Amino acid sequence: ITDSEFVRREVIEFFAWPESRVVSVPLGVPEEFHPREEPEVQALLGRHGLRFREYGLCVATIEPRKNIVGLLAAYRLLPDTLRRRFPLVLVGDRGWHNEEILGDIVRAMREGWLRYLGYVAEGDLPLLFSGARMFVFPSFYEGFGLPVLEAMASGLPIVCSNRASLPEVTGEAALLVDPDDVVALGSAIERALEDEQWNRDARPASIERASQFSWDTTAKRTVDVYRLARTSFSGTVARPAA
Question: 166: which residues sit within 8 A by CB, 6+ positions away?
Answer without folding.
Answer: 137, 139, 142, 145, 148, 160, 176
